[in-house]
Please model this.
Amino acid sequence: MTRSNAIGRLRRMELLAVQLKQNGHCTIEDLARMHQVSPRTIARDIALMREQGMQIDADRGRGGGVRLDRRWGVGRINLDYAEAVDLLISIAVAEQMNSPIFLAGLGSVRRQLAASFSPEKRDRIDALKSRILIGVTASTYVQASFNSPSERVVRTLHQAFVDLETLDIDYEREDGEASKRKIEPHYMLLKYPVWYVVAWDHLKDAARTFRCDRINAARRSGITFRLRPQRYFAPLQDGDAPPM
Model:
């Protein structure tokens, strides 16, 4: 087994332990579909997990499920780089919102996570954090029309933001007018609970803001961009200026 395959298997087994403990009852076929591997591969993983001492029970018969004893501790959480970056940025957002509840230990968590990265990666994370802005809470008028953006759009926007990649989007304005745009996602702005992307709009050749929940579709272009000077975006960073 190659090193990359071994790492992938270990990661899959960590996720399996969490799923078997949380869901209570999963079939081998369900788990195989979730992880995009064969049922035989999942069966081998579970056999190895049992050898490691995990208390995994199985129902007999066709369609029987497997489960991990809920009293069994899954152990330490092992995050990959992308997950750790997301968590660090989420902590930074929470800290910027200055909520007094449940935030006492965030500084310690943030420092422990940051210490696990090389100086180069910490610099990259700091650069990302500087591009995430916290504004005032959205007005009741805006909140009344807010809907959670689709998971597919969120994933695509997230990756393009991190990788400095141009996006092709289908956007619907408040008045219902639809348009196709090519944008460079320079900043993300939260006016709780609404997220905006502050971007360079190639159609208008100017800086514009786009409400993330009004992006109906997003496609990565494969074309990267360089960050433009912050002064181009400063007038839009309160999130009030609509796209044009």
About this structure: Helices lie at 3-23, 28-35, 39-51, 81-96, 106-115, 119-129, 140-144, 151-163. Residues 128 and 162 are 7 Å apart (CA to CA).
